[in-house]
Amino acid sequence: MSADLSGKIALVAGGTRGAGRGIAVELGGAGATVYVTGRTTRTEQSEYARPETIEETADMVTAAGGKGIALRVDHLIPAEVEALVGRIRREQGRLDILVNDIWGGEHLTEWNKPVWEHSLEKGLHMLRLAIDTHLITAHYALALMIEHPGGLLVELTDGTAEYNATHYRLCPYYDLVKTGVIRMAWAHAKDLAPHGATAVAITPGWMRSEMMLDILGVGEENWRDATAVQSHFVISETPRFTGRAVAALAADPERARWNGQSLSSGGLAKVYGFDDVDGSRPDCWRYMDEVMEAEKPADATGYR
What is the CATH number of the domain that holds 42? Predict the structure, then answer.
C-alpha cells in the first residue's frame, strides 16, 4: 500500500473483528497509531460469544507496522466513551481518524419478518447498538477531532445509498439501521465541513468475516469451497479490502471531495487502485445488480 499515515491517530470503534479489524490493520500498515475498542477481551466476552478479541486486533495492527492500543469500551455507556476520548487526548493530543464500526446486530435480526412479527426487544436493542453507539461516540470523539483540520469520520454500513434506496434490507429494524447510518454520515458532513473535516459512509461488499466463514464452514485459505453451497459467494472480499479503502481515503489530501457521500470498497478501489489481499478487485455492488438481482448464474468474471 502506498498510503502513508505515519503520525496519524485513529480510533476504530468496534474493531474486534470483521470490517473493524480489517480497517484497524490496514491503518496500522500505513503507519498509524490505532486505538481499538470493543467489548470482547482475553478475559471478558460480549453476548456475541465469539473468540476474537480487541487485544488480537491491536497486536495485528502493531505487526502490520503501526501501533495498536486495545481498550475495552461499551459504546452504549457515555461515561466510558468520554473516558476513552479523554485518554486519547492525554496520550496523543489529537484524533485524526474516527471509524464508527460498532454493530452487534446479526444475532438480533429476524430475517424477512414485518415489525409486528419481529421481536420488539431485539429490534429496539439493534437500533441502540447501531445508532445510539455511533452518536454517543461521535459526540465525544468529533469534538477532539475538529481541533485540528483534516480529520476523517468513517461510518460503516451495509449497502450503498443507491442500493438501499430500492432494496428492502431484511426487516424494518435492519433496514432503518443501515440506511440511517448513511444519513448520519451525511448530516455529520454538514457540521464537519466548516472545521476542515470530512465524513463519509462506507460499505464493504459481501465480506468474508470470521463469522461468515464459520457459518459456511470454511476458512480464508479454502473459502472458494463455500461456493458449492452459496454460489454467489464467489464475489466475496476480505475485511482488509475495506481497510485498504479507508486507508487510501485517509491518506488522500483531497478526500474532502467525498464529504457526505455513500461509498463502497469496490468503488474506491477503482479510484485509488488498491486490490484485495489475493490481488483481485471485487466489485460486489455492481455484481449484485447485474448478476444476483438479474438471477444469472454465479460468475465473477469481469467483477473481480
Answer: 3.40.50.720
